[in-house]
Amino acid sequence: MSSYDVIIIGSGPGGYVCAIRCAQLGLKTACVEGRETLGGTCLNIGCIPSKALLHASHQLHEAEHNFAKMGLKGKSPSVDWKQMQAYKDDVIAQNTRGVEFLFKKNKIDWLKGWGSIPEAGKVKVGDEIHEAKHIVIATGSEPSALPGIEIDEKVVVTSEGALSLTKIPRKMVVIGAGVIGLELGSVYARLGAEVQVIEFLDHITPGMDAEISKQFQRLLKKQGLEFTLGAAVQKVDATKTKAKVTYKLRKDDSEATMDADVVLVATGRKPYTDGLGLADLGVEMTDRGQIKTDDHWATNVKGIYAIGDAIAGPMLAHKAEDEGMAVAEVVAGRHGHVNYGVIPGVIYTHPEVANVGETEETLKEAGRPYKIGKFAFMGNGRAKANFAAEGFVKILADKETDRILGAHIIGPMAGDLIHEICVAMEFGASAQDLAMTCHAHPTYSEAVREAALACGDGPIHA
Ligand code: NAI
């Protein structure tokens, strides 16, 4: 039996970041992981591989649509799917090996196997029991099942199967117009598949600023994705090579079907806590199956903490990372802090979509007076040069104090641009603070400054 200050269960972005910070703070640290590689869903079957396919398919789109306009002529590239998969697998390997290297560098023990907690202060991995003063559960999430749908990860797939299809489908039906459905749907649309998205709500991307959501849907439609909104999928009948999706239109309860070679089920994820033994330990859960924690990520059982997708809040890798660092500080007897009001969200389509803080809808609901500063990328020289002028930046600021309350960007590099607004919000900045900051020309980030100017006396290039 070995003894640790902290054992973290799960090596996704929450768990591995927590382990590294614990080790940096001088704690004897181990991390339990049952997969053959470190990095969890994000690095192995989520964020990282999907970004590889998004990047590759975007390059194809550029070659097909924009190269000739720039005077780059010649045969446009064809898709070698096997090679694209190999590239994606190599990106995964580079990243997972990177985490392994960081574990070695920080002297973190990787306890290989699936962990459980037989009692507080003990973690069982395989036949071995290890002692730990503190245990952090970072076991993440898994796709939530939909009744009437059986996943085979070949014809009816979750995001995991969708990343490793044996061939590019001729027709794909995506159930759910959330982040996963739209990112992977746009990959296959760019690679030549006919993509139909069925969504329960009457708009895509639930929770997103409505104006951005509408513009986003318009742009995706232009790229060839088709949408059936206000439709609840009832069941999927599948053979070894084909599937039929049955859905009901909410407006009149009429039923219809859609055929597909592949059906991607992207209707949300749920916490993954199977096999940990939480019920026997008496760990309290929420009614949504999340581990209940207090403000310091502690469960009701002394010495057991939980972070990331397994607890409440947005299921985002970077939220888990922040909680991982914060709980490490708590365990080390210091103060951990996460500002849940400033957690950006990004959809890595083209164009990207990014947001932080309040939406117009949440501000209206709270009855908080606000003003809007908007600037379209059409007025941004760099965006025009790069065929990326569709979309806009929208900043929401307090009507009285000018303090930035939220921001929404659809456009080039939105996922990177959002961060200057995050920093501004962390410092309690006003839109004027942002507007008075010199921005290099010509950059996309000038559009952020222009939107900040639009909260005051007005933008220059509009
Ligand atoms: P989601 O919650 O974003 O979207 C699911 C969609 O499915 C919703 O719009 C919902 O209304 C719809 N839906 C549910 N049941 C349905 C039915 N029977 N028929 C038709 N539509 C139905 O879930 P998603 O896309 O699966 O993502 C899961 C989690 O992973 C999210 O929390 C997301 O934030 C996270 N994620 C984040 C990424 C990023 O930050 N770029 C990338 C991938 C995932």
UniProtKB/TrEMBL annotation:
The catalytic site is made up of 441 (proton acceptor)
Give the GO cellular component terms, alphabetically. cytoplasm
Q: Which residues form the FAD/NAD(P)-binding domain?
A: 4-324
Task: Give the catalytic activity.
Answer: N(6)-[(R)-dihydrolipoyl]-L-lysyl-[protein] + NAD(+) = N(6)-[(R)-lipoyl]-L-lysyl-[protein] + NADH + H(+)
Q: Which family does it belong to?
A: Belongs to the class-I pyridine nucleotide-disulfide oxidoreductase family.
**Which classification does the entry list for the species?**
Bacteria, Pseudomonadati, Pseudomonadota, Alphaproteobacteria, Rhodobacterales
One example GO MF annotation: flavin adenine dinucleotide binding
Q: Which cysteines link up through disulfide bonds?
A: 42-47
Domain Pyridine nucleotide-disulphide oxidoreductase dimerisation: where?
343-452
Q: Which UniProt keywords apply?
A: Disulfide bond, FAD, Flavoprotein, NAD, Nucleotide-binding, Oxidoreductase, Redox-active center
Originating organism: Rhodophyticola porphyridii
Query: How many and how are cofactors bound here?
Result: Binds 1 FAD per subunit.
Which branch of life, at top level? Bacteria
Record-listed E.C. numbers: 1.8.1.4
Task: List the cofactors.
Answer: FAD
Q: What else is known?
A: The active site is a redox-active disulfide bond.
Q: Where does FAD bind?
A: 51, 115, 139-141, 309, 315-318
What protein name is recorded for this chain? Dihydrolipoyl dehydrogenase
An example Gene Ontology biological process = 2-oxoglutarate metabolic process
Positions of NAD(+) binding: 176-183, 199, 268
